[in-house]
Amino acid sequence: MTKADTTQAADKAIATWAAAWAESSTESVQRMLVQVWAEDGQYTDPNTVLKGRAEVADYIVKFQQRLPGARFVYSKPNMHHGFLRFAWQLLLMDGTIRNEGMDFAELGPDGRFRTIVGFFGPPPSAK
Predict the structure, then answer these.
(1) At how many degrees (to 10) do helices 53-66 and 26-36 cross?
(2) Where are the chain's structural domains?
(3) Which residue of 4, 36, 53, 107 is 20 to 30 Å from 79, comparing CA positions?
(4) pLDDT tens column, 18-62
(5) Which class for 93: exposed (0-12), middle (13-18), buried (19 or more C-beta within 10 A)?
(6) Which CATH number applies to 3-119: 3.40.630.10, 3.30.70.970, 3.10.450.50, 3.20.20.80?
(7) What single-letter DSSP state applies at residue 1?
(8) How far is CA 68 from CA 35, 78, 93, 103, in A?
(9) How would you classify the pairing of strands 113-120 and 37-45?
């Protein structure tokens, strides 16, 4: 994959990942994740560890049940050697920011996420 192809794959993966979090239907979430998530991919954040596409899909549907209409917006990624990071904000239905943070991810050669590790809040100071 060229650098342009990798950038395009990352942008598509992030956009589809964000769109999946706004869905409440298991079928819709699964359809989106098939495009951008490795079958055995792992998602980790301070609250959970999920292994495999099915666990991730189930978690997203439950998230929408808890926060109907919530959605994520993401920054453009910084990337190198198949790894990327991107900032995000969780917006409630009325547009209020509920949380923000940063994800670190690995893309496989097929352009799908193999791993995402999420962090909540701003990074600690370098001091």
Answers:
(1) 130
(2) 3-119
(3) 53
(4) 999 999 999 999 999 999 999 999 999 999 999 999 999 999 999
(5) exposed
(6) 3.10.450.50
(7) -
(8) 24, 30, 7, 22
(9) parallel
